[in-house]
Design brief:
The complex is a heterodimer of chains A (113) and B (118). Chain A has no helices and 9 strands. Chain A has 113 residues and is an all-beta fold. In chain A, a hairpin with a 4-residue loop joins strand 5 and strand 6. Chain A is globular, with a radius of gyration of 13 Å. Chain B is mostly beta strands and 118 residues long. The chains are: A mainly beta (113), B mainly beta (118). At the A-B interface, strand 3 and strand 4 of A face strand 4, strand 5, strand 9 and strand 10 of B.
C-alpha cells in the first residue's frame, strides 16, 4: 500500500472549516484513500473514503486531486469535539484486499475556541 | 451502526502473568479482526490479522508465541499476552470487518484496552 505524508499538527478556530491535507504521490489505480480519526484514549473512528471522485457524508468531505496524488479532508464547521489525531491511509480495494490498515503518524488537529 | 467492544477496558497485572483481552463484534459477523498496539504519543501498530477458524497472521517482528490470538467465532477474537513484562504495557485496540459489507467498507474499531504490567 502507498505511503502517505501529513503535517504533524494543525490548529483551527471553532466554527471554521478545518482542511487537512494528505500527500500520497505513489498511489496506484486500485488504491482507495481512507480517513480515520482518534480522539484521545479511544479507538479510531472511520470518517470517509474515496477512490477518485470527491465524497461527502454527514461528517466530512473528501477532495481528491485529479492525479490522485493528494487529498484534503474537510470538516466544514469544526467543533471542540473534533480535536483528535486524523489519519490518512491508502489501501487497495477489491475482493482480494487484506483489509489491513497501516497507520502513519497522522495530523493532530487542535480546535480552539 | 456497527459496534465493537473490548473487555476489559483496562487491566493491571504483575510481571510474568498472562492477560487475555476480548474483542467482540456486537451487531455484525466479522470473518476478519485485527489487533493493534499503541504506545504513548505514537501511532497504531498492526500486530496481527485474525481470521475466523484459522491461524492468525502476524506482522513482522511480532512474537506469535507471546501474543496468542484465537478467533473461535464470527463475533469473538481474543488476544492473550503471555508472561507479560513492563515493556508490554500499552494500549491494545482491535478492529473488525463486517462479513456482509462491501470489500471497500470501513473497519470498526473497539474502544481499546489499557494494559499496565507492574
Amino acid at each position: 500500500d502507498a505511503k502517505t505524508t501529513q503535517p504533524p499538527s494543525m490548529d483551527c478556530a471553532e466554527g471554521r472549516a478545518a482542511n487537512l491535507p494528505c500527500n500520497h504521490s505513489t498511489i496506484s489505480g486500485n488504491e482507495y484513500v481512507y480517513w480515520y480519526r482518534q480522539i484521545h484514549s479511544q479507538g479510531p473512528q472511520y470518517i470517509i473514503h474515496g477512490l477518485k471522485n470527491n465524497e461527502t457524508n454527514e461528517m466530512a468531505s473528501l477532495i481528491i486531486t485529479e492525479d490522485r496524488k493528494s487529498s484534503t479532508l474537510i470538516l466544514p464547521h469544526a467543533t471542540l469535539r473534533d480535536t483528535a489525531v486524523y489519519y490518512c491511509i491508502v489501501r487497495a480495494g477489491g475482493s482480494g484486499n487484506t483489509g489491513k490498515l497501516i497507520f502513519g503518524q497522522g495530523t493532530t488537529l487542535q480546535v480552539k475556541p | 451502526g456497527a459496534v465493537v467492544s473490548q473487555h476489559p477496558s483496562w487491566v493491571i497485572c504483575k510481571s510474568g502473568t498472562s492477560v487475555k483481552i476480548e474483542c467482540r463484534s456486537l451487531d455484525f459477523q466479522a470473518t476478519t479482526m485485527f489487533w493493534y498496539r499503541q504506545f504513548p504519543k505514537q501511532s497504531l501498530m498492526l500486530m496481527a490479522t485474525s481470521n475466523e477458524g484459522s491461524k492468525a497472521t502476524y506482522e513482522q517482528g511480532v512474537e506469535k508465541d507471546k501474543f496468542l490470538i484465537n478467533h473461535a467465532s464470527l463475533t469473538l477474537s481474543t488476544l492473550t499476552v503471555t508472561s507479560a513484562h513492563p515493556e508490554d504495557s500499552s494500549f491494545y485496540i482491535c478492529s473488525a470487518r463486517d462479513r456482509a459489507a462491501s470489500s471497500y467498507n470501513e473497519q470498526f474499531f473497539g474502544p481499546g484496552t489499557r494494559l499496565t504490567v507492574l
